[in-house]
Each structure stands twice: as structure tokens, then as C-alpha cells.
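The instructor's notes for this session suggest beginning with a concrete chain rather than abstract definitions. Hand out the sequence below and ask the class to guess, before any prediction is shown, which regions might be ordered.
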Amino acid sequence: MQTSRLLCFLFWTSTAWTDIRIYDLTNNPIAIIPLGQARISNSYIRVIHPVNLTAIKDAIDLFDYVTKNSDLNNSLFDQVIRKKINKIHLTFNRIVPQNRFKRWESLGRAWKYVSGSPDADDLKVINSTINSLVTENNNQIHINNVFEKRMRNLTRTFNLLIDNEQKLENVTFKSFDSLNFVFELDELLYYLEVVEESITLARSSIPNSRIIHERELEAIQRILNGNGFGLDSVDSILNIASAYVMFNKDTFIYILKIPRIKNVPYTLSFVEPVIAEGYRIHLPKPFYLKGQTSFISQSPCSKLKALFVCSNTNLEPLTECMQQLISGETADCPMERIYGDKTIRKVNDGNIVIHGDNITLRSNCSTTRFLSGSYLIQHSNCTLNLDDEEYTSTNLEIQPFTPVTTIKSLHRTCEKEPRKIAVQPRRILSREAYRLSRSNRGSRGRLLTRRGAVSET
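After discussion, reveal the predicted structure:
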């Protein structure tokens, strides 16, 4: 059996391991690049947190009114109260920039997303049902009105205080309890900071535990455990959840999205066809989900911390070509013509596939090298420079790569004038014949053989 050649460099720095691995893919028709562990999702649970901007603005106006009409000049908390009021205004303005109000007026009741990455199903669910769901729950969607209730209670409490003080003194609120006022300001400020933080984290689809009620997580945990996906704690739900924020004229909607997944393990890989003599296998669905029943997908799976979650709506059975390639059998696959001297594809932050002659590789974890041919470069805590293009990875766990060199032969036929970027069936030699033909191509082939020897430094 032929083996893939590996150049591996491991360095220790003061903060972490620096790891770079270079695989020669010359004898591989494809490179099956492992990405990590995965699960399949059949549907999603959505937890919705409505944030009424009008109610917040009313509460802020109420605080302003109390501050203006209360005798705070002689209060020990005068400066504290005024600083907190100012901070509340600044935080609210960051959540709702003033220049957006005019644009929001034109939106009416249509929902738009401001952060996160909702898919087509998310937008369909929200746009078609959100207005009724805010007051009604079902199995797929849970509404969290905890903050809304706190805001209503806060406003109600202040109105009672103001009414009582006005009965005693119509001119000023001399006896207003400044300490209680500070506590109420802190309550509103905390609420605004949680909303702002949640929006910021949602821009990267990261859920915010401060806005999630523990009872909600416990309910979701019971649902997931019922599907066979056991979780040690409710906090583990946040490891597989994503978040995004939508808004309309006067309301923010914070949505926590949790996949309904079963505890059936899969391994997700990206299948990269290797270029040989200007051709490569045509694989329009390059994501390979390996398990008891394997699948392929054209769309990438969502990465939720250490786990990939793949929607079953995007999965398809293996094609005959893919099944043959993975099984090491004689493969009959469509081919496509590739034009251009060099190809550099970033699969993810830790994996790069290159093809071409005399590609310059510089990095902060290895010496400068000049690569010719097809290579997979895996790197962690390392910055690479490939032909003046920079690639950085930090604290990544490199998944073991296994070469695919056992295919007996690969059949294809060739038209006289193949079109660019079109599937072109083409006939080629068996792997053994192809290897012999390369060995007779002269000094270039021998140079690759010498360079490809396994070495460690």
C-alpha cells in the first residue's frame, strides 16, 4: 500500500503548543479532512425573550421625571443618582441608536435580524408567527417574559411612590427615599446591560446565560434527555445552543435556538478532491458525515463549541462515486477541468489545501519552504503565510488525518474540448500505472520524492 508523506513540526512556546503538519497528497484522489464530532438535528426548540423598547423608554422617562422633581441636591446620593441616570441613557442609546428610529418607523411589524445568523426556517417561523407567540407558547417555542414582568413591576412601584409623595407634598418630593431610588436605578441598569451584552454575544451566535432563566434550561434538558441526548447539567445546553436577535419598530426579540438532537455519534469531514494533470473529481456536496448510516451535504454544519450539529434537511445519502472513493473501490466519478497554476483553499482555521508549483510557505512555527504539488497543511497556534496571504489559528485541536491511497483505479473519459468549470468525464490510468508514469517524468518527480520524506524537528 502506498502511504502519504508527512512533514511534521512540533514546537513548544511559553504559552502553548505550536503544531504544523504538512501532508503530501500526490497519491490521493481525495483528502478526507476530519473536522470533529457531530450530531444530527431533526428540529429546534426556540426560547424567545421579548424586550419592549417602549416600556424601557417609559421607565427611563419616569426616572428622569423623579430626578428632576425630587429634592436631590441635599441628598447624600445626589451624585450617585445622576451618574447612574446618565449611564442608563448611554446604555439605552447603544442598544437603540437614535438614528435608527426613523428607519424603524418604516419597518412596521416586519421583523428584521440585527445580530446572529438565523436561517431560512428561523425567518419563516419568526415572520409568520412571532406576534401571536409572544402571548402563547407551544412545544417548539417557549416565551420568557421574566424581564418584561420586572419592568412592569418597576414602573408600577415608582408610580405608587410618586402618587404617595404627591399626596404629602405637591411641590417637591422632599421625603423621597433616595436609597430605594438608587436600588431601582440599579435594577434598570442591570436590565439594560444584560440586553446589550446579549445582543453583542448574539453577533457571534453565542448565548448569554444572564438572560436565560434556569427553569427554561431545565425544561429543555428534559426534552433532550427524552430524545436520548443526556446532559450532565443545564449549563451544558448552552454548549449546543445558538442565539440571535431580531427587532421591529418597538421590540427586540432575543431568541435562543437549541437543536433537538439524538445521541448518535457521527464524525464530520470535508472531502477535498486533489488536482491531477489539470483535473479533479467533481464533488458538489463535500461535507461527509460518517456514522452507522453515512450522509453527504452541500451546506456546512453549525459549529456549537466542541460539537457540529447537522440539520437532517440538508443531508443526502452517499452518491455512488463518494461511496466508491471512501470504500477504496474502483471509482467511476465525474471530473472537472481546473484552470490556473495555483489553488489555495482554506477549509477551516486549522486546515488548508494547496496545489501548484513553487508555493512559498512562511510561518512563525517553521522555516520557509517551497512546496510543489498538492498538500494538506494542518496548523494550531501558528500563523502561516502562503504566497503573501496570511492564515492564523489559535488553540485548535488538530484532528488526525488518514490518507486515501487504496483506490484501485479511477475511471473517467475526456471530451476533445472540455469547457471550463464543467463536469468532464475522462479516462485515466490505474493508480499503479499513474505512479509509474510520474516516476518517468524526470527530475521534478524525483525532487518531490526526496522532499516528501517524513521528518521531525
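Then share the key points. The radius of gyration is 30 Å. DSSP finds eleven helices and 23 strands in the chain.
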